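Box 3.1 — From sequence to structure: MMPL family transporter
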Amino acid sequence: MAALARWCLRRRAIVIVLWLAAFAGVAAAAAVTGSAYSNDYDIPGTDSSKVSALVERRLPDRAGDSDTIVWHTADGAGSVRAPGVERRMTAALRQVADLPGVASVTGPYAAASATGPYDAASVTGPYGAGDTGRLGGSGGLGEAGDNGRISADGHTAYATVVFREPAADLGEAEVRRVLDTVRSAASGAKGLQVEMGGAGAGLTERTGPAHLSEAIGVGVAAVVLFLAFGSLAATLLPIATALIGVGTAYAAIGLLGHAMTIADFAPMLGMLIGLGVGIDYALFIVTRHRKGLRRGLSVEQAAQRAVATSGRAVVFAGATVCLALLGMLVLRLSFLNGVAVAAALTVALTVAASLTLLPALLGLIGMRALNRRERGRLAERGPEAAASQGLCARWALYVERRPKLLGAVAAALIAVLALPTFSLHLGTSDQGNGSAASTTRRVYDLLAEGFGPGFNGPLTLIGSMDGADDRMAFTQLPETLRTIHGVASVTAADLGGGGDTGVITVVPTTAPQSRDTSDLVGRLRAEVLPRAEEGSSLRVYVGGLTAGYDDFAAVIVSKLPLFVGVVVALGCVLLLLAFRSIGIPIKAAVMNVAAVASSFGVVVAIFQWGWGSELLGLGRAGPIEPFLPVIMVSVLFGLSMDYQVFLVSRMYEEWRRTRDNRTAVRVGLAETGRVINSAAVIMIAVFSAFVLSGDRIIAMFGIGLAAAVALDAFVLRTLLVPALMHLLGGANWWLPGWLERLLPRISIESEGEGTGDAEVGAGGDGEGPASGPVAVPVPLPGQPAEGAAAAGTARSPVP
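Predicted structure (token representation):
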């Protein structure tokens, strides 16, 4: 590590140019090739997957993407069948049909149809990106002659716009022209409201300038860094390093999308994680570098030592986060594989930037890493000695005196926050969860009001049949389905695909995200359809929005225990090797689970229960995304491991020196508290700022991760963990003798790796020989190790 830092320092111009060239080259390549993201929740083998496959193979004319135009007349403004309304909307729909990118338009007025005579089977559901739900015929939802596109009260009607390209490939400008055209029909018409919903319309909804959330997060982080350093140059280094690493990764993820399935939120998620950890990792190295300068080391010596010590901890921390993220690969789900690789790539590049670009920048700014007052004090008084004092030291002493009370308070707080997790409902949000001010949300509400809540998520039953008997059984199935509780309407069986495939659309009485709709899907699959298939070769599969989301969530939940077990086991092994203790890994695993559970409680309360979701601009309450637990567990276990290592390593160092548990815990907490708290504040600021992204999924991650980091840093690591360690005493460090002999010895921060300077001794900071027979494994980045390493020094850990 020291050799790498030395090379980067002495060739800093080359290093900086190479990083800038890499960033510019990858960004240019990504701009030329474009993006190829895919939100494909399809899981082979499930009912919903079979429905999608049958539609694409045998009914290709029904597999396209479409948006829905809805118009509504207020009470007292007449019906949507009024001549004036019909004339306005007919003209608007004709104009839409002639716009670039539009394949067809089908509405309730015969004259407005751009596809000729109405084809009942061509009517698509309103939220159709990848959705195979279909609604054909009147089905009791409208009057004859309007194909069910006019509500029973006559105040709401809709038309379907089919685009020539999938929603993911549509340009925002094309969709906006459609939206502006139909909205112009309402101009000057009192009581007429026109809205547009669907995946295409969602492209037009931008809640603010691009990357506003990232800018705010970085701005808050800059304030925290300036308060900590007092030097503008030192403040800019962690931010510049993180931005270059994350920016390169962001562009690389766009290129990676052409080679594997990557969700459209993966780049934003990678940026969210990368900015948080990247600024923190650079913070640890810069903090150690500044301490070296204050102790009289040259710029090159201080930077080499910072990378040789804190840089090792950064590598360990980053590797832990990457391994936790890549643990998602054990689930063997293509949708999550891309997310895992994208996030891990971002973390890896931020670590690489911290180890190479940051030393080069440290050499570039020289002594300006210290503020003017620090430089003046160094010139007048010479090198300073380290001391553990201040608020963190007083807090450490307070925890030592009242471990039972404070531990109980912390445990109670975590338990209360975790309670909402028990009501967790996994599902996928749709445009009904958007902001009340958005056109897509208004379309969703108008359709639910006019045609029933289930209209926004019809179930599609696809029958695969062989012979006349199967076709007869399938055509009789609608009569049975109409008697099932929870079914609002059922279309007649539509036989297509050469007579071997049939389609039936079932409209539930409840909304797509309702548990009752999920229960209906379960009853159809477990009870109703098996009876219809009995004694024949007919096979009927249930698809549609709710069915597809339920299948995805069920697979995730079934594999979640395996995933959590792998991640927890990995973390325990790493901590066992680092601290040679049974108790430390077990406590860490329990604390990590507590952090995850409590942060999920916050997410459930805000997004599922709706506590403040509309106030925060996050839309209506709804289910939690099924992949959120997996990704958050990966990220949180990695981040929690970082804090655990930074805190307990200093305790372990003091324990090896004094064999006094109370002193070890007090010193560790006193000397690491400030760095951990500063790092946590930066992460919380970055994560919280992503609430402003306008993306509900990213907002879930932002709030969940911000809550987890806050609880982990300020409740678990600085309160509950030290309280428990005081209560357990020497048992914290117990390890069976036979296991002690078997375990290899690892050193996260190598004290013996010199920097090539004469003053660097075996103790790692040049203050004297190391005490004890074994090198201290993990001093905290940015914290002095010389007090524990210097033979015979027994300074008081707190003032």
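Summary of the box: Confidence is low (pLDDT under 50) at residues 111-145, 750-799.
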